[in-house]
Amino acid sequence: MKQRIVTGVIAAAAFLPIVLYGGVPFIVLVFLMSAAAVLETLKMRGIRAMSLPGLASVLLSFLLLMPSSIAQGWQDAGYGKMELTFIFVLLLLVYTVLSKNRFTFDEAAFCVLVPLYIGFGFSYMIETREEGIAFVFFALLVTWASDSGAYFVGRSIGKRKLWPEISPNKTVAGFFGGIGSAVIVAVIFLFILDFEASAVWVLLATAFLSVAGQIGDLAESALKRHYNVKDSGSLLPGHGGILDRTDSWLFVFPLLHMLQLL
């Protein structure tokens, strides 16, 4: 626990000032986090970072991360993110042929899905920062409150397991405790942020964000269980890897936009 606290304090001291400053430093930070998360996930599958598929996956995640203001030039030329993603798909399929199927179709699919999952998720974090710093903190605090509420409520009164095949420590009581904690944060933010939506919709949408964040955590747990690893990485001692700390964000930030809370 001591190591988790020390790592958390150091990470927060490095992360939060950059989030507050925004601009290029924030975009670079998100790119680095995305690259780390992609490489951690590829490692689970046994795909090396310094390989053509590994590099292609990182590059595809960078492509998907590009803010709209930067990617506009490509789109005006008729090369949007969808077209460029398809080029990456074709190149990976060509590589299955050139490698004489040592690099398989399944691995090619993995190398596309991973950057889609991680790259798009983090891209919405950049888009949210461009809407305003308060919305970034709203998403982060809703996620952290949901995680903390689920942990403490589950630890205190949790009996029935939520999904033991995937994450044996999560409980039904913790699941609802997480939702309640997130909604409390939303109530506070109703007095701070000028949401486009009504107060009722903000609270309902926040409950949905909490559920989505918890599912994001379960999705990564399922991935780790499938590949028989405890943590996605070791970059953050006591916490695991970057993906371990941001798996909920990858679900929450896109939904923040889709639920029209900005």
Automatic annotation (TrEMBL):
Enzyme Commission numbers on file:
2.7.7.41
Q: In which pathway does it act?
A: Phospholipid metabolism; CDP-diacylglycerol biosynthesis; CDP-diacylglycerol from sn-glycerol 3-phosphate: step 3/3; Lipid metabolism
Q: Which domain of life is it from?
A: Bacteria
Give the transmembrane region(s).
Answer: 6-39, 51-71, 77-96, 108-126, 132-153, 173-193, 199-219
- Please classify the protein's predominant subcellular localization into one broad category: membrane
Instruction: Spell out the molecular function terms from Gene Ontology.
Output: phosphatidate cytidylyltransferase activity
BP GO annotations:
CDP-diacylglycerol biosynthetic process
Q: What is a single cellular component term in the Gene Ontology annotation? A: plasma membrane
Q: Where, subcellularly, is it found?
A: Cell membrane
Q: Which reaction does it catalyse?
A: a 1,2-diacyl-sn-glycero-3-phosphate + CTP + H(+) = a CDP-1,2-diacyl-sn-glycerol + diphosphate
Membrane topology type: Multi-pass membrane protein
Name the keywords, alphabetized: Cell membrane, Lipid biosynthesis, Lipid metabolism, Membrane, Nucleotidyltransferase, Phospholipid biosynthesis, Phospholipid metabolism, Transferase, Transmembrane, Transmembrane helix
Extent of the signal sequence = none
Family affiliation = Belongs to the CDS family.
Name of the protein: Phosphatidate cytidylyltransferase
Q: Which organism is it from?
A: Domibacillus epiphyticus
